[in-house]
Amino acid sequence: MTPKEISACRAAIGALQWVAVQTQPLACARCNLLLSELAQQPTMQLAQELQELIRVQHCFEAIFRLPKVNHWSQIVAAGFGDQAHQNRPKGGSTGGFLILLSNRDLTVDLPAPMILVTWKTWKLKRVSIDTIDDEVQSLVETEDVLFRTRMLWAAINSAATVGTDSRADFLEASEKEVRLLPGIFGTDSKGGYDSIMVNESPIPTQGQPSKRFNSKSPFLVV
Question: For the chain, which residues make up each domain, given as ranges?
Answer without folding.
Answer: 3-55, 72-221
